[in-house]
Amino acid sequence: MLRKGADPAQLEGKLASVIEKYLLPQWIADGVPNAKSLVAKVALKLQPVKDIHLRSAGIQDRLSHGDNPVCMVVWPPLPFSS
After folding, report:
1. pLDDT at residue 76 above 60?
2. Separation between Cα atoms, residue 28 and residue 35, nearest integer Å
3. How far apart are the first and last CA of the chain?
């Protein structure tokens, strides 16, 4: 979590250097083709903690993420008569 008053955009700007410093050397060591050109296509973005569960559908990392519109369709549960 960010400190109160911290600028998320400023931190996101610094994340680009993390990609070049840590990810690029690992890709090169792993023999990833075109590793240097791939760095330009990678972006690390911050997301508010409260949005992680239901507003992460647009993240492209090969994992499944929550999607708020789908949850709105199935929630609240339908009442069943007994």
Report:
1. no
2. 6
3. 46
Find, among 29, 64, 58, 26, the residue nearest to 45 by Cα: 58
Instruction: Please count the CA atoms within 13 angstroms of the CA of 9 that sit on its side-chain side.
Output: 0
pLDDT of residue 26: 94
pLDDT value of residue 33: 92
3 state SS of 63: coil
* DSSP assignment string, 2-22: PPTT--HHHHHHHHHHHIIII
- H helix runs in the chain, sequence order: 8-18, 24-29, 35-39, 68-74
What's the whole-number average pLDDT of the chain? Answer: 77
**Which amino acid, 70?**
V
The answer to whether the CB of 66 falls within 8 A of the CB of 56 is: yes
Pair of tokens at residue 12: 């996101």
pTM for the complete prediction?
0.52
